Structures are given as C-alpha cells and as structure tokens.
Automatic annotation (TrEMBL), chain B:
SUPFAM superfamilies: Cytochrome c oxidase subunit III-like. Residues 25-199 form the Heme-copper oxidase subunit III family profile domain. Belongs to the cytochrome c oxidase subunit 3 family. It is found in: Cell membrane; Membrane. It comes from the Bacteria. Its main location: membrane. The chain crosses the membrane at residues 24-45, 65-84, 91-113, 133-158, 178-197. Keywords: Membrane, Translocase, Transmembrane, Transmembrane helix. This is cytochrome-c oxidase.
Length: 657, 201
C-alpha cells in the first residue's frame, strides 16, 4: 500500500517543478470563491474523504471518524468496568459469599478502577472534545490529525493489553493507584504490577497527544472573529482541561516509569532501605491524581454550559465568570494533591495548608453552579432529557462536594480513610460530576453525530432509572462506611450486621447497570429508527449546529465568521462566511491566537496508515518492556522506521507548501 | 444554513514561521510536557536528597569532565543553530542544507561524549537510590537527545531531496532549531544537579 493509492482518484493539480531561488515556490489550485454549492460539495468531498476499504478506514485522520471510534471504545470499557463492579457487588451482597476469592477480588477492583479512570473517563471526555472542538471553533479538522489518530491506536492497544492480561489472570491487583511497597518488587512478584505500570504509560501517551492537538486547534484554528471572549464555554473547558493534562499526566508517567525501573532493573527509587522513599510514590502519583479528577470534571462542566443555554433559551449568565472559574479550578487543582495523603502522618502545618486549599476550590465551583442556576432562572427552560441529566448532575455532585469538604478536614479523614464512606464520596463526584453530564451530552449531541434523534420517552425512563439506581447503590455506602466497613475487602462476617444494607447497595448497583442497558438500547434504536434531526434540532447557538447532521467530512462548506458567543442566534438569516480557500486540497484557515484574525491558509494532513503502524511499534515496545529492559533498545528501531514513514512527504500537495 | 460571503482569504500566505505556525505551538506543547517530566524527576531527586541527611549515601563524587564537555558542546551549538534559523526564515536552500549538516554533527558529538558520561558517574543505578536518580536523570536527557538528533538527521536528508525546497520544510527547520534550544536548556539544570549539587553536601 503506498500513499499513491490513497490519492490516485483525486485530481491532483499538475505540480510546478521547484526552481532554485530564495523564495519557496507557491502552488495553486481552484478556490471556493463564487463556486456554486453543488460543485463546492463535490470538490471538498473529494479532497477530504476517508479512502474506501479496510486500509482506507485504518488510515483515516478525520477527527469525527477518530472521535466516533474513541467514543465507542470508551463506552465498551465503561460496560466492562461496570461488569467488574456488578461482579464485586454480587460477591458483597451478603456476608461470607464464596463466589469470588480474595485474589480475583483484588484484580476486580483494580481493573474496575483503572478501566473507569484511564480507559473510560479520561478518553471519553477527550473523545467528545475531538468530535466537537473543531466543529465549535469552525474549522475543518483537528490540528495534527495524524497525531490524533496515533493517540487513538495507542489508547486502544493499552486497553486491549490490560484486558487481555485480565483474561490471562495477570491483571494488576494492587489497587488503581498501585502504592509501593505493595506494588514494588518485594511484595508483588510476577507481572501484575508491571501491567499496571505499562497500561498507564500507553493511556497517558495517548491523552497527551490528544491534549496537544486540542490546544493547538483552539489556539490557531478558530474561525475569523472568534476572539477569546467569543470562544464557546465548552471549548474553554476543553482548553483548560488539555493544559491540566499537559502538566499533570507527565507525573503519572514518571511514577509508573520509576516503578517499572525499580521492578525490572533494580533501581531503588522507592526503596527506603537503599536511600529511596515510598512516600515519594504517593506525592508523584497524586500530583497527577488530583488534577485527574478535574480532567474528568472540567469537560463535564463545559457540557453543562452548552446544554443549559440551549434549553434555557438564553446565553449563559456570567460568561466571563464561568471562564475565569474554569481557569481558577485548573490552577487550584494542582494545589490539592496532599489531601489524599492525610493518613500518612505529614507535618501538621502542611496538612492545614492542603485543607484550606481543598476548601478554596469550592469557591470557583460554587460560582459556576450559581451562574448555571441564574441562566435557568432568567431563561424559559424547556425540560428535555439532556436537561434532566443536568439536574441529576446538580443534585449528585453537590452531595459529593459536601462529603468532599468533610473529607478535607484531617480528623474526619483519619476516621473514614479507606472505608466505604470514601467509595461513596468519589462515586458521587465521579458519576455525578462526569457520567451524568456525559449522558446529558449524549442525548444532546447524538443528533449531530448520527443525524437522528434519540427517543425522548426512553430518555426519561433512562434518567429516572439511572438516578434512582445510582442513589440506592451509593447513598447507603456512606452509612456502611461510617459503621466501619473498609473498602477493598472481598467479604465480611455476618455478625457485623452489614448484610441487609449491602444487599440494598447491590440491588441499586444492578438497577444502575440496567439503566445503561436501556441507554444502549436507546442509542441503537436512535441510530436505526430515530426521527431525522435536521441541522439544529434544539435551535442551539454554537457553530457545530451550523452544518448538516452528521457533518460532511470537511465540516463546513465555507469557513464561518463569528460575531457573537452564540453565533447562530446572532445571525438568524444567513451565516457570514469567508471565501478564498482552495478546494482541491485539504486547506484550512490558521488564525491569530488572541483575536482570531485570518493569517495563513494551511494544509491539513492527508490520511495515512503510518500512525497505526507507529502505534503498533510503540505498543509492542511497551508490552515487550515488561519482560526485558532491552525492549526499549530493540523497539527503538521499528518506532524510528514508522515515524520516518509517517513524516516523510509522499508528494501529496498537502505535504509541499 | 444560508451563507453570505463577507471576507476573502485568497490572498493569505500558505506558510508562516515561528508562532504563526501551528507546528510551533505543537512543539511548544511537547516542550511543556517534557519540561514538566524533567522538573518532576529533578524534584524527586531533590526530595530524596533532602530526606537523607547523608545524601550521596557515601558514594564517590562523579567525575564532571565528560558532562562539562557535553555542556560546552551544547552551548557552542547554539550559535550555528541560530544562524541556521535565519536562513530558514529566508527560505535559502543551500545555506539551510549546510546548516542542517552542521547541526547533525553538533548533535552527534555530545552523544559520543555521553557514552563516557555514564561510567564517569562512578556509581551504578542499582547501588542505591542516589545512583538510581543519577542514571534516571542522565537517561532521560539522553533519550531526549537521541530523539532530537534522529529527527535532525532525517530532516537533513529530506532537505537534500526534491521535497526540501518548500515553505513547509523551512518551517520544519525552524521548529527543529527551536526544539534544539530546548534540549540544550533542559540540560543545564540536570548538569548542575548531577555534578555540582552533590558537591555542595
Ligand atoms: C456501575 C456503576 C459502578 C458501580 C456499581 C461501582 C462500584 C464500585 C465499588 C463497589 C467499588 C469498591 C470496591 C472495593 O473497594 O472493594 C468501586 C471502586 C472504584 N470505582 Fe466504581 N462503580 C461504578 C462506576 C464507577 C465509575 C463510573 C468510576 C469512574 C469514573 C468508578 C471509579 C472507581 C474507582 C477509581 C474505584 C477504586 C478502585 C480501587 O479501590 O482501586 N466507578 N466501585
Ligand atoms: Cu483530590
């Protein structure tokens, strides 16, 4: 397969031969100026299409195609992680059940935790961003589309790696944060902890790649006129999140690399007997781990900020305040990590500082909630399924926030540390703060992605089932935690009297799981039989609704020009657009960072199989490296070859300018 | 949705240097995340150094000379690097080709010296945590160096092919210059940390 095959069906313009001189050559081709819609569509569709066939599909660099794969994959991992949880809950539904032994239980809660955090929550918010951000800023593809495709393949291989290990009884069993010394060479012989370390590396490589692509898309590819004050709140949220990823994820990569070095080549970084330190692991891990919560939560607030104005029928109240809170939360999220370590005996003063900062972060979060309520108050809310899920988010997240403030005080934390109170707290925060908004977002943007509506009636059933199931499953966990039930135990004796409440919890968990079955049914029903949606079924105001549903490969026939935060509400009759781009090659507009003045007509990368090959090389190296450190040396060769293949120009006009 | 054309982009250029180009921002993004990684590794080193009153854990001093030679080479390389940048901005193909060859050599030279730097640490990675951290810091920077030198060499070859003479390639050269500055910059604190901080204690 050569790249000539990929482009053979295109009308390549005759390339001018470069002549020596001190100015780089200019190529040219037909422009969209004055072109009628039908020919414009024909040209653009040819320039931007994903080539047919299997190889073509694997070569795709269309952000929508990649995002769709990401979304489906992350959803499958949610279901797998959910099955882990259901298995745990069946085992815990009564005292001393013999269904699952301690060894398998350890793997189950670890797989549940890592799957939910690294294979579901982070990837799915990034995937949503990959789909929506380019559309919302009015451009034709994400920046560095091949890097983005590479990110997906690395993520997929990391997830498959973890789950195949699970099937081989080789899954990590040291908890999702894999503390040393438990995960160190002395107490975890075998490969299980190595699987943890390397699956972290895979997924973080992919998150970092996507974060960089997202940042550059927002900085440089905004439609003309979309100055900083007109960037949609969702895009702001993803921008801030991507920055948090860039500064937080390296910490966990360093942690997992240090761990694997200690385990594999005998370094002593975490070994106190030889001058290392076990708490260092916790510091490094939570320097990432706390911001991780905001990596999951901030995009969800962006979704809420998109859904509320659409259904309140007015722009968000306090746009600037919402943006500033996002940025403040992004910064503050780096100042809180030690609150996960109160039980380790830190100096008192240090602990008080982190208590204070943990409470401080409630201020910008509170401000956001205030702005949303004000938007609803002042608007004329239309209650549809997406908005129901937003209400669910308010309710659940506020409870999670309250228990969070409780846990931020050291004396209380010392009492309930490692009990089910904490399990209840973080599920209220994670599911309330992220899963409910995501479900709302699914109903909200499903019509854009598929061109069809999901059923509103099933949607309401889904909401109530999820809301009730969730609270039945997780609220009693607070109580049983206060009664002293520790987390990560595979069973408990009958004399403690925890049987009934655990049965209730398990019943709630099953209900909650069933709500996802209903959701899946609604998704499939929508794809197959949903009512056609039209471009803008909710009459919302941001740019993704200006194009057809689903959007064409090139997103917009002409690049829109933005005059307002809700551009479609400001320009009801006709959308102002810019002309003058080439239509025979993948051309898009680069604009200036602050004002979004048009600056450069840039070429966007063409489809390529090399990102997949590079991901295979990288993934193979990571896999091999849990067996021998030489993997890094041997793996460097295929990695280098595939990267050269990736970047070497193939003679497409896109490569040359 | 109906459209009304209000602006014309046809006169815009097709490439730009420095912060005008998305690749420059992408490079900056990768610098930010790699820099964070370096900072955290250095932080881990200092954390351990401060946790142990007898830090260096009675290991012998490292021999700083190979490291010092690497430092001098890296600093010297900044001069041709920036001359190269100026030619790249002017899209002058012949001087850019020469400059890329020079920079490839300036990349390989410290790598050769680096080979002697590891034994000059006078300790193995598995002796104690001090040794582990030295090898980790030096290893991190070496990985960094190898990747960038590899990248530079490939780009050099590319500049000699028919693909070399294009605005996009000159932009790539500019980004390569930018990234090399970063490789040099990250080395300085690591150099001080490996060779001079232990001497303080
Ligand atoms: C079907 C819904 C879910 C149920 C029934 C459920 C249930 C549970 C239970 C019972 C535990 C505690 C296991 C133990 O300590 O013995 C647990 C742990 C955990 N859950 Fe969930 N969960 C669900 C969804 C989620 C989601 C959506 C996330 C994240 C976005 C999540 C993240 C975690 C994490 C990080 C842990 C800690 C794992 C560890 O201790 O290492 N869970 N879950
Ligand atoms: Cu936290």
């Amino acid at each position: 397969m050569s790249s000539a095959d990929l482009t053979s069906e295109r009308d390549l313009p005759q390339r001018e031969t470069a002549t020596e001189g001190d100015v780089a050559p200019e190529h040219d081709g037909p422009r969209d100026t004055g072109m009628d819609d039908a020919s414009l569509h024909r040209w653009l569709a040819r320039a931007w299409r994903t080539p047919p066939g299997i190889i073509g599909a694997l070569s795709s660099v269309d952000h929508k195609v990649i995002a769709r794969r990401y979304l489906i994959t992350a959803f499958i991992f949610l279901c797998l992680g959910g099955l882990n949880a259901v298995a745990m809950r069946i085992q815990l539904s009564g005292p001393q059940r013999g269904l699952i032994g301690p060894d398998l239980y350890n793997q189950l809660f670890t797989m549940h935790g890592v799957t939910m955090m690294f294979l579901f929550a982070v990837p799915i918010v990034q995937a949503t961003g990959i789909y929506l951000v380019p559309l919302m800023v009015g451009t034709r593809n994400i920046a560095f589309p091949r890097l983005n495709a590479f990110g997906y393949w690395v993520y997929l291989s990391g997830g498959v790696f973890a789950w195949v290990s699970f099937l081989l009884n080789m899954a990590p069993d040291v908890g999702w944060f894999a503390y040393v010394p438990l995960s160190g060479p002395e107490f975890s012989p075998g490969k299980r902890a190595d699987v943890w370390a390397q699956m972290i590396t895979y997924t973080e490589v992919s998150s970092l790649a996507v974060a960089v692509a997202t940042i550059v898309t927002v900085f440089k590819q905004r439609a003309p006129g979309m100055s900083l004050d007109k960037i949609p709140l969702y895009v702001w949220a993803l921008l801030v999140t991507s920055f948090v990823v860039v500064f937080a994820m390296p910490a966990v990569m360093i942690t997992s690399t240090f761990l694997i070095l200690d385990r594999l080549v005998g370094t002593h970084i975490f070994n106190p007997a030889e001058g290392g330190d076990a708490l260092l692991f916790q510091h490094l891990f939570w320097f990432f781990g706390h911001p991780e919560v905001y990596i999951i939560f901030l995009p969800a607030t962006g979704m809420v900020s998109s859904i509320i104005p659409a259904f309140a029928r007015r722009p968000a109240f306090g746009h600037l305040g919402l943006v500033l809170s996002l940025i403040a939360v992004g910064f503050l999220s780096f100042g809180l990590w030690v609150h996960h370590m109160f039980a380790t005996g830190l100096p008192k003063l240090g602990a008080s500082f982190f208590t204070a900062s943990s409470m401080l972060i409630a201020i910008p979060n509170g401000l956001q909630i205030f702005c949303w309520l004000a938007t609803l108050w002042d608007g004329r809310p239309v209650i549809r399924t997406p908005l129901l899920f937003v209400f669910g988010f308010f309710f659940i997240f506020v409870i999670g926030g309250l228990t969070g403030v409780m846990l931020a005080s050291v004396p209380l934390d010392l009492q309930v540390h490692d009990t089910y109170f904490v399990v209840a707290h973080f599920h209220y925060v994670l599911i309330g703060g992220s899963v409910f908004p995501l479900l709302g977002a699914a109903y909200f943007w499903f019509p854009k992605i598929t061109g069809r509506m999901m059923s509103e009636r099933l949607g309401r059933w889904h909401f109530w089932l999820a809301f009730i199931g969730f609270n039945v499953a997780f609220f009693p966990m607070h109580l049983v935690g206060l009664w002293g039930m520790p987390r990560r135990v595979y069973t408990y004796p009958a004399e403690l009297g925890w049987g009934n409440i655990n049965l209730l919890i398990s019943a709630g968990a099953v209900l909650f799981f069933l709500s996802f079955v209903l959701f899946t049914f609604n998704l499939l029903h929508g794809v197959l039989k949903g009512v056609p949606a039209g471009d803008n079924p909710w009459d919302a105001g941001t740019l993704e609704w200006a194009t057809s549903s689903p959007p064409p490969s090139y997103n917009f026939t002409r690049i829109p020009i933005v005059t307002n935060v809700e551009p479609l509400w400001a320009e009801r009759d006709a959308l102002p657009v810019a002309t003058g781009l080439r239509v025979d090659v993948r051309e898009l507009l680069i604009s200036t960072v602050a004002e979004a003045h048009p600056d450069i007509r840039e070429k966007s990368a063409t489809p390529s199989i090399w990102p997949l090959l590079a991901a295979i090389a990288v993934g193979g190296t990571f896999l091999y490296s849990i067996f021998t450190p030489w993997a890094v040396v041997w793996g460097a060769v295929p990695i280098a070859v595939t990267l050269v293949g990736w970047f070497w120009p193939k003679g497409d006009p896109e490569d040359e300018e | 949705m109906n459209q009304r054309p209000v602006a014309d982009l046809s006169g815009l250029p097709t490439f730009g240097h420095g912060p005008r180009s998305p690749t420059w921002w992408g490079t900056l993004g990768f610098m930010a995340l790699e820099g964070t990684g370096f900072a955290l590794a250095a932080g881990a080193y200092l954390y351990l150094a401060m946790s142990w009153p007898n830090w260096r854990l009675s290991a012998p001093e490292p021999n700083h000379w190979p490291g010092t030679i690497v430092t001098l080479l890296l600093i010297a390389s900044l001069v041709p690097n920036h001359i190269l940048n100026r030619y790249a901005e002017r899209c002058a193909i012949v001087p850019v080709r020469i400059g890329m060859v020079v920079m490839s050599l300036f990349g390989l030279a410290p790598l050769v010296v680096r080979w002697f730097e590891f034994p000059a640490l006078n300790i193995y990675w598995d002796t104690n945590a001090y040794g582990s951290m030295l090898w980790v810091l030096l290893g991190l920077h070496t990985t960094h160096l190898i990747t960038d030198v590899g990248d530079t060499i490939v780009l050099t070859v590319l500049m000699f092919t028919r693909h070399g003479y294009s605005g996009r390639r000159f932009g790539d050269v500019g980004d390569n210059v930018f990234y090399w500055d970063f490789v040099v910059l990250t080395w300085i604190p690591i150099y001080l940390l490996i060779y001079w901080v232990p001497r303080l204690g």
